[in-house]
Automatic annotation (TrEMBL):
TPR repeats lie at residues 128-161. InterPro entries: TPR-like_helical_dom_sf, TPR_rpt. This is Kinesin light chain. It comes from the Eukaryota.
Amino acid sequence: MSAAASNAAPASSRGFAARTGPGGISITRHRTDPKVQQEMQQQIQEQLQDQAEQAGASASATPTGQGLGLGGGSRPEHLQGPELEISKLQQQVHELWSQNKIAEAREVAEAVKLTVESFYGDKHPVYASVLNNLALMHKQVGEFDEAVKSLSEAIRIYKDTVGDDHLSTVTAMGNLGQLYKTYALNSKGMEKHSLLTHAKTFFATNMEALKSLKGEESPDYGMAMQNYGAVLRLLNDKEDSMSYVEGGRNIIVAALDAEHPRVATARNNMGLELKLQGRFELAEKEYKEALRIRQAKLGGSHSETIIAMHNLAELYMAWGKDADAHALQQQVLDELGVDKVDLEDEIAGDGSSGSGRS
């Protein structure tokens, strides 16, 4: 793991006690120091926002059998020999990943890589797809340098075999933008700025290519606009950031059913931009709609619903509506099955139960 990926101190060294919920979200409380708690809440907000934005990314942001026509679904009946073996292994990777068994998924993915290289060679789109999947797994465990290496190689292969404008190439470029953004959020100073600049470049390329491939009314283009806007905000270009995030929201809302999960993601992203501008009433409207959709479609205990509840609670805290914020925070604890007394007992202990960041 790179130094940048490991710079977050464990909870015990910061005086935090944490309880991990679905999706690796840590519900954390500090004992006494409000300044430290504010810093922690900002870190969690960045982490949750990154998860929420990534939830709207294209399908290849999840390990699949791309290149074999699998998409994580059933295995094609016509495959035989090595192709069938690869298909079975890819299906296994998808199932392990969906169960959050990252280490096991990565082990099988390494076996897929060797099998694909042996059968197709290392200059084939299927091999690039395997590298893309491995990069996502490296990213998940904070091995950012390895992730960049794998994904950059995947993009090079895609460009050489299917061209710069192929959807596989364009999607991988967007994935690399997300990777650089996440890497930046785990870095500081000039390194952080440099990584965000890289993210901006790849997001811009991804956005323009999707505009050309799918048109200005495509929800994929709309999500690409929001991704680009988010990195502009992190680079302190707040005016242009709002323009892209709002434009992307409008495209997604117009293109999809009002109850679609990607509409919830788009509204969540818009809510954050409005909150940061101090436009709390408008932000509340976006956050509440995102939460309503996720509760209806995913249920109250799903990690994406928990993210939406957390974001709304953070808005109320910034707005000065502490009672509303605390009520939502208690709902989060209830959904995670954490008893308030148990949580207080844990905080009163040595503070060593888990990490402040997942």
